[in-house]
Design brief:
three-stranded antiparallel β-sheet, five-stranded antiparallel β-sheet, globular, single chain, disordered N terminus
Length: 180
């Protein structure tokens, strides 16, 4: 089951996620980071915290204070999804037999939400069963061409979960992943 990234990019989204989980500081203990991963971590910090300067920095420790921002709903992939893949025109993730998307409503009251997903089956048309917060919600007929599902939900405060289940086929490439 292929689809597109759910989390909007940008500094405010990352800060809203930190705020939702009461993360007020980010501390990097450089001696705990393997040297081969430090460049990647610096790039990730620049992307997630682009306008935020460290409140402390030396060769061993970098500390950031996370500012408060307006709460916003966000979503991300949890279990059952492979790493994002891409070409020049699009990005996607394949799903295993069962994949979860977590959506967080940081507001104290339910919020109406529209979630539109695009998918293609790996080898053949399949029916994808989906549920919202452990309640069966429907079956999505997914073909090798792009199939679209639009969900309209009243999102309760806190974390909600959408689960997708579909049969898999073994990838023909070297990795032999089970893809749906």
């Amino acid at each position: 089951l292929g689809n597109y990234t759910l989390i909007p990019s940008g500094k405010d989204n990352a800060l809203a996620i930190f705020n939702t989980y009461d993360v007020r500081h980010v501390l990097i203990h450089w001696s705990d980071i393997p040297s081969r991963q430090r460049k990647t971590l610096r790039q990730a910090l620049a992307e997630v915290l682009p306008d935020i300067r460290p409140i402390f920095e030396d060769e061993n420790l970098t500390a950031y204070r996370i500012p408060e921002v307006k709460p916003q709903t966000f979503a991300f992939f949890r279990t059952g999804w492979y790493t994002q893949e891409y070409d020049q025109q699009r990005r996607w993730r394949w799903m295993t037999e069962r994949g979860e998307i977590m959506i967080n409503n940081p507001h104290p009251i339910p919020q109406p939400m529209q979630l539109t997903l695009k998918a293609q089956s790996y080898t053949e048309t399949s029916d994808v069963r989906y549920s919202f917060n452990q309640t069966p919600a429907g079956i999505w007929h997914v073909t090798r061409n792009t199939s679209i599902l639009t969900l309209y939900v009243l999102l309760p405060p806190g974390e909600s979960h959408i689960w997708f289940e579909a049969p898999t086929s073994t990838e023909q490439a070297f990795s032999k992943r089970d893809l749906s």
